[in-house]
């Protein structure tokens, strides 16, 4: 699923996520849509570190994201 934008100073931005990246895995779980991403994120709490695999062009990049609080 492609990322439309990343908020400044967000955990995602601080972890290196860029607009246009396509999320493919979160902690080795394949992500096909926003529901899958939300389901995996609910298994974590703020402060947890997660491995986020993204496609950036033809390259797959793995980012470490420290999750923030939920609104």
What does this molecule look like?
There is one protein chain. This protein has 71 residues and is α+β, with helices and mostly antiparallel strands. It has a single domain (11-66), classed as Roll (Pdz3 Domain), CATH 2.30.42.10. Helices cover 17% and strands 32% of the residues. It has a four-stranded antiparallel β-sheet with strand order 2-1-3-4. It starts with 10 loop residues before the first helix and ends in a 5-residue tail after the last strand.
Quickly describe the structure:
The chain is of the alpha+beta class. It has helices at 11-14, 34-41; strands spanning 22-26, 29-30, 49-56, 59-66.
pLDDT below 50 for ≥5 consecutive residues: which ranges? none
Give the strand order of the largest sheet, numbering strands 1, 2, ... along the chain.
2-1-3-4
Q: How far is it from the N-terminal to the C-terminal residue, by CA?
A: 22 Å
Please tally the β strands and state the result: 4
Number of domains: 1
CATH fold-type name: Pdz3 Domain
CATH superfamily: PDZ domain
* Principal-axis shape: globular
CA-atom Rg in angstroms: 11 Å
Helical element count?
2
The helical percent reads: 10-25%
Order of helices and strands: HEEHEE
β-strand amount: 25-35%
Please identify, by name, the CATH architecture: Roll
CATH class, named Mainly Beta
């Amino acid at each position: 699923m492609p990322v439309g934008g990343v908020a400044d100073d967000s955990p995602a931005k601080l972890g290196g996520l860029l607009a246009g990246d396509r999320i493919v895995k979160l902690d080795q779980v394949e992500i096909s849509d926003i529901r899958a991403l939300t389901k995996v994120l609910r298994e974590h709490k703020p402060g947890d570190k997660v491995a986020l695999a993204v496609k950036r062009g033809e390259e797959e990049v793995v980012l470490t994201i420290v999750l923030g609080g939920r609104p």
